[in-house]
Amino acid sequence: MNCGEFEASVGDLARGRGPEESARRAATAHARECAGCSSRLVEERELAGLLGLFAASVAGRSAPPRVEAALLDAFQRQHAVPSVRRHSLALARWAFVAAAAVALVLGAAWLLRPQPVVAPLVVAKRPIVAPVPVPVESAKAAPVLQRVAQPRRKRPPQRQTAATQFYPLTPVDAGAQIQGGTIVRIGMPRRTLASFGWPLDPDDSGGAVEAEVVLDGDTGVARAIRFVGRRQ
Amino acid sequence: MQEESASDGELLERMVSGDREAFAALYRKRQAGVYRFALQMSGSEALAEDVVQEVFLTLVRAGATYDPACGPVTAFLYGIARNHVRRGIARGRYGSADNGPEPLAADHPENDLARSETIASVRKAVLALPVRYREVVVLCDLEELDCREAAEALGCALGTVKSRLHRARRMLAGRLLPEGAALALSRAIRPARCVP
């Protein structure tokens, strides 16, 4: 063993621990031969003794009992909180399961509800006009014609109007009724009305009169007319 | 009875699952070492008390994070204690060498006085060491952990602990022993091999 190897093991040698028996014997033999290493071993033993004295001076020291009491309280609290949390989590889990079950039942009930019987939708090939009703005193009392179906026709904005009865424009049988057709709203010049023989105020011959004309569904011939005025 | 025979690892395992008695047993078994480590590192009883409290509170809160593969429970506890001590020292919470704990009473007053003076000087020398050297001296020479356990507690390599310990002892010898400084100096200039 050389001095470097001795130096590496002198601490453990002085404290009686560490190297194996053979290494210890070699270190001791080296210390006997080397004065420097011998004094180094003495020094290390002295230091170990001093440190041992210091360690012994605090050997009986420990934390005061109040620390243990505080820690045991903290432990109790720490392990009480998770149990409350576990309880809350279990409740939340059950609430979730219950809510899911209710949602499932409601969904199934909605899917299995009795469906209303829907008749097949029949689209008329042409607009159908209901039978011409009796002449009316006012629009409120009697809408003269009822549109049953008017596909893809943009309705004019509804206005409150007053209308006269329908007047036939073509000769018809006394008891016959118009069975179908299309109503078209037009603006008829007052002069044209005069040409039909309608009485007209000569001072008010300009402008147009709003009227509705029933066109024959098959031929498109105007079959009847009525005059419409806006209600004030 | 069961607590006394149980190992630290078993006690910790039971403690994590909520066994209060296991925690109490582990505390009673290990608190003194942690307290002394903090006291010898800082020289402050108040800091040592706080460190014990913090170490075991950390164990209560984060005991489940302990990994047996990383070392024994004692190394885990000393590792936590070391962090708290370092923090305390950094905040200036350390006692003076003259104001440390009283040594145990001796049979003879004159011996008691000499002994007290010796202990005070050792305490002063230990507290004067840089922290990284002080902690290896406290763990290995005062608390008698072996170098491997100290390395696990400090989170450094075994070789680092050994070299720090060697250097720390030389520093202490230079301060405590009359001829220590001269010897240390002579060692520094001496060749590695003995001259026949």
Q: What overall geometry of chain B do the principal axes of the alpha carbons give?
A: globular
Major beta-sheet overview of chain B: none
Quaternary structure type: heterodimer
Helix- and strand-based class of chain B?
mainly alpha
SSE order of chain B, as H and E?
A: HHHHHHHHHH
Chain pair forming the biggest interface: A-B, 44 and 54 residues
Radius of gyration of chain A: 58 Å
SSE topology string of chain A: HHHHEEEEEHEE
Number of strands of chain B: 0
Terminal CA distance of chain A: 129 Å
Q: Mean pLDDT of chain A, rounded to whole units?
A: 74
Q: What sort of overall outline of chain A do the alpha carbons produce when their principal axes are compared?
A: rod-shaped
Structural class category of chain A: alpha+beta
Query: Low-confidence stretches of chain A at least 5 residues in length (pLDDT < 50)?
Result: 118-134, 136-144
Strand content of chain B: under 5%
Total helical elements of chain A: 5
N- to C-terminal distance of chain B:
61 Å
Mean pLDDT of chain B, to the nearest integer, reads 82
Helix content of chain A: 40-55%
